[in-house]
Amino acid sequence: MPDLSNSLCYTNGLIPVIVQDAKTKQVLMSAYANEEAVSLTLSTGYAHYFSRSRNKLWKKGEESGHLQKVVNVLIDCDADCLLYLVEQKGCACHEGYVSCFFRTIDGKIILPRLKDPKDIYQK
User: Fold this and answer.
1) Residue at 56 is within a domain
2) Three-state SS string across the chain, please?
3) Are 30 and 37 a contacting pair, CB within 8 Å?
4) Has residue 100 been placed in a domain?
5) Residue at 123 is within a domain
6) Beta strand pairing status for 27-33 and 48-51?
7) pTM for the full model?
């Protein structure tokens, strides 16, 4: 099977990544990755992203311990979006929810908060 990672279509150096729990198929989060983040993800087996707000590479869980072990990486038909299937340790969301998609558009919280962010990020 050919390695398609070199033929990814980055926009302004980034590619969107959707993250899904490998077992439950619950969508956990979305993020962006640059070429280095994709390469690190593929070589280490743990999810790496590029933070647009901090303008730097980051490994998911580097501060919180809530790592994402990558089971598989899928590429969409246009090679301009990735899907990471992961085994999530702890919360995917920095606000303490298992998924970043924890509320409806009208603000109703639909998932339980697993951790207080103050307990996750004690810095």
Assistant:
1) yes
2) CCCCHHHCCCECCEEEEEEEECCCCCEEEEEEECHHHHHHHHHHCECEEEECCCCEEEECCCCCCCCEEEEEEEECCCCCCEEEEEEECCCCCCCCECCCCCECCCCCECCCECCCHHHHCCC
3) no
4) yes
5) no
6) unpaired
7) 0.91
For residue range 48-97, list pLDDT tens digits in order.
999 999 999 999 999 889 999 999 999 999 999 999 999 999 999 999 99
Number of domains in the chain: 1
Encoded tokens for 41: 């993800």
Domain that holds residue 101: 5-113
Please choose, from the candidates 48, 62, 46, the residue with its C-alpha nearest in 3D space to the C-alpha of residue 14. Answer: 48
